Amino acid sequence: MPRLAYLGPEGTFTEEALRLLDPTADRLPCANVSAALNAARSGDADGAVVPLENSIEGAITTTLDEFAWGEPLVINAELLLPVQFSLLARPGTEIPHIKRVYTHPAAITQCRAFVARELPDAVVVSAPSTAAAAQEVALPGSPYDAAIAARIAGEHYGLVELASGIGDRSDTVTRFVKVARPGPLPPATGSDRTTLVVFLADDHPGALLEMLTEFSVRGVNLTRIESRPTGDGIGRYFFHFDFEGHIADARVGDAIAGLHRICGEVRFLGSYPRADGLVPQIKRGTSDSDFAEAAEWLAKVRAGEI
Ligand SMILES: O=C(O)C(=O)C[C@]1(C(=O)O)C=C[C@@H](O)C=C1
């Protein structure tokens, strides 16, 4: 049975995602995303499950940066989890008395309208995770009056639910990924996604356009692009890409090789089945057989046969 590290403690959305991704895995709760990924890197765990992006908040930047800088890890699965938040408190607490709320920063963004409307005077403080917030609020001497977390976290830590479905939108989704140390890749399924981190060789006009061209001319559809600071000064950025297809697909492999030729460093973060099952539209001239036929034709031309 694999042992998977995750953002804990028990009752986080990440735990729910892990249970759905691998129901039989042993679970190793960790204090934060970095600790979960380090457990996978060191071998304390066989892999880890971490949040990557949210339909309201956007990218989880800690995860993006860990993937770019730490010892390499590779994504082998993803999951889209609808997230619903509840306001949880110790028994006897009433909403008008809530002055300090504790929750994960991603939940703060997603419940902004509810907090502004129902808790206008409350201070909202960042917690390492939604379940860590619920666990803390359950302590008798806690400085916090309420937590925003999943209902299940309230049940787990003995809190009462004062309000449910308090997210600004009812259709919020968080995308989670399962990662492991580099090894054999999941086979191509026809409905796959690939993730890369790319560092520029040097800063020059058109550098971003040149990268995008590698995808565009091969008909590779991007599903996420993010720039993140390298830390080397204002204006210094690296890039995170998600796109349709598997590195085993000719158009995808060719685009990645093209980036490798023109960029400073390309870090491959995995090709894995898409959670939404969508099958990409293959643009004319970019299928595997189109690439094979063109390579055959070129070989003949070079051999003087055409
Ligand atoms: O705190 C949790 O429960 C998490 O699993 C983390 C996390 C996130 O990082 O986005 C996951 C889903 C929700 O969007 C809020 C928080």
From TrEMBL:
<dbReference type="InterPro" id="IPR045865">
    <property type="entry name" value="ACT-like_dom_sf"/>
</dbReference>
<dbReference type="InterPro" id="IPR002912">
    <property type="entry name" value="ACT_dom"/>
</dbReference>
<protein>
    <recommendedName>
        <fullName>Prephenate dehydratase</fullName>
        <ecNumber>4.2.1.51</ecNumber>
    </recommendedName>
</protein>
<keyword id="KW-0584">Phenylalanine biosynthesis</keyword>
<dbReference type="InterPro" id="IPR001086">
    <property type="entry name" value="Preph_deHydtase"/>
</dbReference>
<dbReference type="Pfam" id="PF01842">
    <property type="entry name" value="ACT"/>
</dbReference>
<dbReference type="InterPro" id="IPR018528">
    <property type="entry name" value="Preph_deHydtase_CS"/>
</dbReference>
<keyword id="KW-0456">Lyase</keyword>
<dbReference type="GO" id="GO:0004664">
    <property type="term" value="F:prephenate dehydratase activity"/>
</dbReference>
<keyword id="KW-0028">Amino-acid biosynthesis</keyword>
<feature type="domain" description="Prephenate dehydratase">
    <location>
        <begin position="3"/>
        <end position="181"/>
    </location>
</feature>
<comment type="pathway">
    <text>Amino-acid biosynthesis; L-phenylalanine biosynthesis; phenylpyruvate from prephenate: step 1/1.</text>
</comment>
<feature type="domain" description="ACT">
    <location>
        <begin position="196"/>
        <end position="273"/>
    </location>
</feature>
<dbReference type="Pfam" id="PF00800">
    <property type="entry name" value="PDT"/>
</dbReference>
<dbReference type="InterPro" id="IPR008242">
    <property type="entry name" value="Chor_mutase/pphenate_deHydtase"/>
</dbReference>
<keyword id="KW-0057">Aromatic amino acid biosynthesis</keyword>
